[in-house]
Amino acid sequence: MPIFKLDEFLLNILPKKRLIGIDPGTKTLGIAVSNTDLTVASPIKTIKRKKLASDINELLSVFNYYDIAGLIMGWPLNMDGSLGPRCDSVRDFTKSILRVKDLPIFFQDERMSTMAIEKPMIVEDMTRKKRSVRTDQLAACWILQTALDGLQKKM
């Protein structure tokens, strides 16, 4: 499956299946999944990145466990909306996933995702250590929820 625009993505996902959201970092992958109604995203885990094959194998086990129908990948645009070098690495990583798992994929703008999830944790006076444990999976949740909200408007 190729990488789709939102309208096309919606047409290519199976009904009553879950979507996965990934916040792709250089050291970790934040992971979140949707419910089968595609209305709510929930954070599930953070994968410490190792080698590409190991990262993909761990993702495949998550895909299979949650019966994933599509992938929402965080798209790290520059603040001005232009593509930067991180977009190239995310695109390459996504192509590596597609080589082993045929899934429809949508790139979701992830600008401000970390700030959006860290601000409430700071307000709640959460320690840096506790925040660092949750940041990546909550960013993935924010990315996925943003895409789910867009999908709901199209349904």
Task: Fill in the keyword field for this structure.
155 residues, alpha/beta, six-stranded mixed β-sheet, 24% strand
Describe the structure in brief.
The protein is α/β, with parallel strands linked by helices and 155 residues long.
Give a description of the structure:
- With 155 residues, the protein is α/β, with parallel strands linked by helices.
- It contains five helices and six strands, in the order βαβββαβαβαα.
- A six-stranded mixed sheet has the order 1-6-5-2-3-4, with helices on both faces.
- Strand 5, helix 3 and strand 6 form a beta-alpha-beta unit.
- The radius of gyration is 15 Å and the shape is globular.
- The mean pLDDT is 91.
List the helices and strands and how they pair.
Blueprint lengths: L2 E2 L1 H6 L6 E7 L3 E7 L6 E8 L3 H15 L1 E8 L9 H16 L4 E5 L3 H11 L4 H27 L1
Parallel strand pairs: 1-6, 2-5, 5-6
Antiparallel strand pairs: 2-3, 3-4
Q: Overall mean pLDDT score? A: 91
Q: Main β-sheet, in a few words?
A: 6 strands, mixed
Shape assignment: globular
Radius of gyration: 15 Å
> Which band does the percent of strand residues land in?
15-25%
Lateral strand order in the biggest sheet: 1-6-5-2-3-4
pLDDT < 50 runs, ≥5 residues: none
| Euclidean distance between termini CA atoms | 21 Å
Strand segment count: 6
Structural class by SSE content: alpha/beta
Q: Helix and strand succession?
A: EHEEEHEHEHH
